[in-house]
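Input.
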Amino acid sequence: MQKTLIILVFIVLGVGCKHPSDKSEIPLKKILFKAVHESGDWIESRHELTIFSDSTFVYNSKEKDHGHSKYEKFQGVVRIQNDTLYFSRKDMNGAGDQAVFKNDMLEFFDEAKMFRLAVTQNHTSLKSALDLSAHSDYALFSYYPSKKNDYNKPYDLSQAEFDVVRSLIACVFEENKDLRNPEAEFIKQLIPYRNRKGAIEVRVYLHSKNKLDPKGFKYHPIIGNNASICSFSFVVFLTTNYYADLSASTACK
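Output.
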């Protein structure tokens, strides 16, 4: 009799422990967009933006200076409209709370500063008119007037116009045999704009590749010629398809 009661107690307890789960499953957030900035010798600056499916974002940054590293993490919400992203905070990289997606880059901007990140994942409605995925040694930058009396206007190249610029760069190397290094050893930075007469021009800067900072040229325009390395510049006139004002550093010859 005592054995029977013990068995019944365990049966009742076993049945009583089976409760239906009252916890609702929390849907997982999906990554919709990701962009990264890596520049400086041995990656002294690294920024990473991640946007999720619930319109929230996380922005992580690391700045290294004289052996000391500073880490920061920012969170908030973001709204996408056309080609522009509007963030709920403006203290992430010092370039405001708005960014434009173009030329496979995310470009933050305000009146005082421009900051760029390379897009590595994109599952949003954002589309780039120019695809640079097959041209990893090129970087395009927006034109920002440097003076109040600067009448040039920003301009975005089409894919066909970009191909014309590339062909004219090849012509520079063919017509200037005294340039010591082949085209493949240079990074190319382009700044297109429309001049005061309405003609389209592109400022072209070429510099020998930096092995210590191979991606840095994508984030900051390098204006002028560096005498210590082979670098040169010229202007492309797309309306008439020719180039002029070629200037090269002494290291190129």
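Confidence is low (pLDDT under 50) at residues 1-18.
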